[in-house]
Design goal:
heterodimer; A: 200 residues; two-stranded antiparallel ribbon; 16% helix; globular; disordered C terminus; B: 203 residues; alpha/beta; 6 helices
Chain lengths: 200, 203
């Protein structure tokens, strides 16, 4: 455990046993850090967070980092070879299958235990989409250190944290529109230099 | 006064000067900067005031923590769009005569953050800058050089006539409009009366 990542699969099983009805999805990280993360469904997120903090073996008492991720609509196309009957003869035909993943926002939490000296455990909360349904439950009631970082994610990504005690913009000013860390955000054109640098 | 006569008199132990000379001599050797830093350039500015570089040699050791007592604002670092109105407001609160050094790539142009969503592309869009220093960050020597450039500028100012400095022109402004935060940036984006960018004219 002290070697960095805790066994995400074990924690997934423990969560599912402790919080009935909770849907946990394991997202594997293929890099050498192997920091796998757990996607928690929004309905049970608060319960899961309380369990992770209070369970005597886990004691994840410290939320070190909260951030946002913006996933645009993605289309993955893969070529699949299938056997088909063409004019009564079996032939191998390659088909292009397209899978559409709708865009969404994610809030990512990195949890450690000061008491047990282990971690990180990485949680992800997903929004329904990038436009109207960008609400996830706030975990500030469980980890107070998430307060400003959730405000930052709200400010820059537009993730709305339901149950946050004071959800205002943190870095940008009041009255700023849009969320500048979204991948499709373009700052207003400032082309007064006349050097063609800023023509987008 | 005839310069030869002045030199001749000084050989006999007689010092002659003009009111303008002694006034400017006094001003250029007691420029008090504002205690004001924005980013990493401020660390170099602080180093410049310390024993190794010793800005006190130029009469600028008294950093004043109030704009009312300061003559010089060293804009040392990245000016974000969120901070820019406060920088202009601080400048407005300084009494005349007042000077501005824009220190570092960010303060003069936005620097590496120029294309970011929240960085002002140079403070000279809103207040008149006397000396620009490039560098990221500029070394203390560069700040000292900028300071000496400013001193030269002060000592060359004529107190009468058309070319007299702004603080002796009753009808020239000593305060400049403070920009306001709008939906995406600052409104207005620049003060056209202050900002004179060099433009490349192709033809």
């Amino acid at each position: 455990m002290s070697s960095g990542t805790m066994n995400a699969e074990t924690i997934k099983a423990e969560i599912e046993a402790a919080v009935p009805g909770c849907h946990v999805e394991l997202v594997l990280n293929g890099s050498s850090s192997a920091q796998h993360s757990l996607v928690i469904d929004n309905e049970h997120a608060l319960q899961v967070a309380r369990y992770l903090r209070d369970d005597s073996a886990l004691r994840l008492d410290f939320c070190s980092n909260v951030t946002g991720v913006d996933w645009l609509d993605a289309e993955v196309s893969e070529t699949v070879k299938t056997k088909k009957l063409v004019d009564g003869v079996e032939q191998e035909v390659s088909e292009v299958r397209k899978t559409r993943t709708p865009g969404r926002l994610e809030a990512v939490y990195h949890l450690f235990s000061m008491e047990k000296k282990h971690g990180p455990v990485i949680l992800r909360l997903r929004t329904a989409d990038r436009a109207g349904g960008t609400t996830v439950p706030s975990l500030t009631p469980v980890w107070r250190s998430a307060e400003f970082q959730e405000r930052e994610a709200f400010d820059l990504y537009g993730i709305v944290f339901a149950g946050h005690p004071d959800l205002r913009r943190l870095l940008m000013w009041e009255g700023f529109v849009d969320h500048p860390m979204r991948k499709d955000y373009l700052p207003p054109e400032e082309n007064e230099d006349g050097d063609g640098r800023d023509q987008r | 006064m005839d310069q030869d006569l002045k030199a001749e008199l000084s050989k006999h132990g007689i010092f002659t000067t003009t009111f303008e000379e002694i006034y400017n001599w006094g001003r250029k050797n007691s420029v008090w900067p504002l205690t004001f830093g924005l980013a990493c350039c401020a660390i170099e500015m602080i180093a410049t005031t310390m024993a190794r570089y010793d800005l006190a040699r130029f009469g600028a050791e008294v950093f004043r923590a109030s704009p009312r007592q300061a003559d010089l604002i060293i804009v040392s670092g990245t000016v974000t769009k969120k901070m820019a109105p406060q920088v202009v407001r601080l400048y407005n609160q300084m009494p005349e005569p007042k000077y501005v050094i824009a220190m570092g790539a960010c303060a003069i142009s936005g620097g590496p953050f120029r294309d970011g969503y929240n960085v002002l592309r140079g403070i000279d869009r809103y207040i008149p800058v006397d000396v620009h220093i490039p560098g990221c960050p500029p070394r203390p020597e560069a700040l000292i050089d900028a300071f000496m450039t400013l001193q030269k500028k002060i000592s060359q100012q004529q107190l009468t006539g058309e070319g007299r400095p702004r603080h002796l022109h009753a009808d020239l402004p000593s305060e400049f409009p403070v920009p306001e935060h709008a939906g995406h940036g600052l409104e207005p984006a620049e003060n056209a009366e202050v900002w004179n960018p060099l433009r490349v004219i192709q033809g």
